[in-house]
Amino acid sequence: MAILKEGDAVAHRMHGAVFHSYAAPARGSAELCAWRLEVEAGVTGMPHRVSREEVFLLLSGTVTVTLDGTPEVLAPGDVAVVPAGASVSVDNHGDGPAAVWVTTSVGLEATTGDGAVIRPPWTQ
């Protein structure tokens, strides 16, 4: 069993957000990836299509998750399930930062609107 403390997370910055990686193959996980996403107030997320299912659990603040063109505001404790192949973006139109716990399976890739494929290091 691996125990990771908050200070053990590896931080990655992308598109105005910080991804604090806890579970990934590079950290010893064989099947799942999990990270804490921090989104500052005023950040508009990058729309992208995901290759694998993702689950978002809002820990604090508020975010708007736009799933296949339909926006939905999440409050702490709310969950968004993003199916594989769906288009998603996460925006923070609130007055303060937001924190989201995200879980997916190993190997997730994201394709942006211009066709660029992103292989996030926190899913590899």
Provide a brief overview of the structure.
The protein is mainly beta. The protein has a single domain, classed as Jelly Rolls (Sandwich). The chain has strands spanning 10-14, 17-23, 32-39, 48-50, 54-60, 63-67, 70-74, 79-82, 87-91, 98-105, 110-112, 117-118.
Protein traits:
124 residues, six-stranded antiparallel sheet, single chain, Jelly Rolls, 12 strands, mainly beta
**Could you say what the CATH architecture is?**
Sandwich
CATH class: Mainly Beta
Extract low-pLDDT stretches: none
Mean pLDDT: 95
Description:
The structure is a single chain. By secondary structure, the chain is an all-beta fold. It has one domain (10-24, 32-123): Jelly Rolls (Sandwich). It contains no helices and 12 strands. Strands 1-2-3-10-5-8 form a 6-stranded antiparallel sheet, with no helix packed on it. A 6-stranded antiparallel sheet has the order 7-6-9-4-11-12, with no helix packed on it. The protein is globular. The model has no long low-confidence stretch (mean pLDDT 95).
Give a topology summary.
Layout: E1 10-14, E2 17-23, E3 32-39, E4 48-50, E5 54-60, E6 63-67, E7 70-74, E8 79-82, E9 87-91, E10 98-105, E11 110-112, E12 117-118
Antiparallel strand pairs: 1-2, 2-3, 3-10, 4-9, 4-11, 5-8, 5-10, 6-7, 6-9, 11-12
